[in-house]
């Protein structure tokens, strides 16, 4: 038995296994800690949001829409809330606004799958209405925790709802878009930029020229910080 166990250990070492020899019947493999426990923290946050009580959004939604993309990305993008298609698929930005977002990202050489995407509210508002102030305030705590977990170098807030969730109602996105701001969340500073939401650009295509300026500004900052996209 001892000889066999020695052979087993030598074999596992040869294939660089991270197996732990232990008499315990469970937890015999080392957890992947490459992302600092990010996956576990995100799972806990998602569970916390799913446990919300007395939420009008949750009552009428089919699915929670939590996130999409790479949780290890240094770029985090925040939208408003799920639409009908997002609610059906459980994934943010998959409708018409998502198609435009993909084009916007491609225009500045960003692969969508390489960044991390979420929304202010994680359940679809009835009739795709704008989330109410009380809803924005309620979910902003979860969003702030979400941002802290991802810990991005660049935070992109798309639309007035995303802006209000972090900065309150004192700002107007038409005046503040395109400007870099330092946002303090849980005692950490995040480099943040406001820009128009793709859904707004679909309704107001004449505003795309301003959005393009913001996108170029974002690309410039990415290059300055040497962030891989």
Describe the structure.
This protein is of the alpha/beta class and 229 residues long. The protein has one domain (61-224): Uracil-DNA glycosylase-like domain (Uracil-DNA Glycosylase, subunit E, 3-Layer(aba) Sandwich). The chain has ten helices and six strands, in the order H-H-H-E-E-H-H-E-H-E-H-H-E-E-H-H. It has helices at residues 2-14, 38-50, 56-60, 84-89, 96-107, 133-150, 160-167, 173-176, 198-203, 208-224; strands at residues 68-69, 75-79, 116-119, 154-158, 180-185, 188-195. The protein has a six-stranded mixed beta sheet with strand order 1-3-2-4-6-5. Strand 5 (180-185) and strand 6 (188-195) form a beta hairpin. The chain is globular, with a radius of gyration of 21 Å. The N and C termini lie far apart (52 Å). Residues 1-7 and 11-32 have low confidence and may be disordered.
Q: What is the CATH C level class, in words?
A: Alpha Beta
Tell me which oligomeric state these chains represent: single chain
Spatial ordering of strands, largest sheet: 1-3-2-4-6-5
Q: What is the terminal-to-terminal distance?
A: 52 Å
What is the general shape? globular
Structural class assignment: alpha/beta
CA gyration radius, whole angstroms:
21 Å
What is the CATH superfamily label? Uracil-DNA glycosylase-like domain
**Residue windows where pLDDT falls under 50 for at least 5 positions:** 1-7, 11-32
Q: Which percent band covers the strand fraction?
A: 5-15%
Q: Which bin fits the share of residues in helices?
A: 40-55%
Q: How confident is the prediction overall: mean pLDDT?
A: 89
CATH architecture: 3-Layer(aba) Sandwich
> Remind me, CATH topology?
Uracil-DNA Glycosylase, subunit E
Structural domains: how many: 1
């Amino acid at each position: 038995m001892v000889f066999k166990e020695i052979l087993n250990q030598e074999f596992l070492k040869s294939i660089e296994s991270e197996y732990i020899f232990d008499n315990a019947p469970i937890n015999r493999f080392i957890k992947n800690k490459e992302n600092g426990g990010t996956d576990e923290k995100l799972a806990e946050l998602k569970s916390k949001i799913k446990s919300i009580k007395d939420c009008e959004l949750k009552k009428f939604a089919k699915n929670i829409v939590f996130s999409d993309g790479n949780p290890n990305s240094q770029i985090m993008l925040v939208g408003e809330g799920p639409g009908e298609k997002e609610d059906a698929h459980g994934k943010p930005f998959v409708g018409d606004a998502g198609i435009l977002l993909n084009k916007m990202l491609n225009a500045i050489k960003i692969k969508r799958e390489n960044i991390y995407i979420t929304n202010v509210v994680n359940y679809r508002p009835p009739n795709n209405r704008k989330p109410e102030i009380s809803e924005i305030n309620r979910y902003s705590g979860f969003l702030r925790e979400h941002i802290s977990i991802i810990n991005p170098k660049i935070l992109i807030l798309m639309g007035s709802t995303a802006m209000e969730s972090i900065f309150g109602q004192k700002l107007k996105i038409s005046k503040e878009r395109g400007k870099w701001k330092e946002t303090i969340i849980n005692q950490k500073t995040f480099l943040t930029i406001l820009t128009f939401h793709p859904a707004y650009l679909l309704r107001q295509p004449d505003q795309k020229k301003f959005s393009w300026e913001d996108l170029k500004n974002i690309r410039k900052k990415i290059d300055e910080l040497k962030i891989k996209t």
